[in-house]
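Quick one, T. Sequence first:
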Amino acid sequence: GGGGSGGGGGGSEAPRGFVTLNWRRVLESEEGLRAVPRVERGALPLHHLRLMHVQLSALRNGFIVARLLGRALVLPPTLCSCELGFWPKHIGGRCVAGDHKMLALPYVCPIDHYLDPSALANSPFAHRERPFLDNNRTAPALLASRATVLAGGRAAAAAAPP
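Structure tokens:
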């Protein structure tokens, strides 16, 4: 990855580059992760909690890898499969607030639906907002510079001699 700036922050030093996550792989890691079943009014939307758990676990791992490499994490397009406010009692069968009839689920959530933006900005984790790599002001050399980092069992299998 390359250098650059724009959107987001965190961390006390300028990052030496950027890290992105293979978000498609995260979302395909469990069968039915993006399913949106009907929910009884006031019931816990377990499908949404499961989706958020998987994504937040991957996000945590991405922040750790980025920090270990001295890079900034480009935030992925995190999905919400239920429109939760401050309490679940306002959601109906479609898992949306009653007056949001046009909201298609799952949807890309705003960051404040799953993280505290001010806490993230003051954290030691450097990051960039999700549209950073799509911004026309992002240097082309940065977009062309890539390195693949494998973690877990896949990394060991890729490093093993043939």
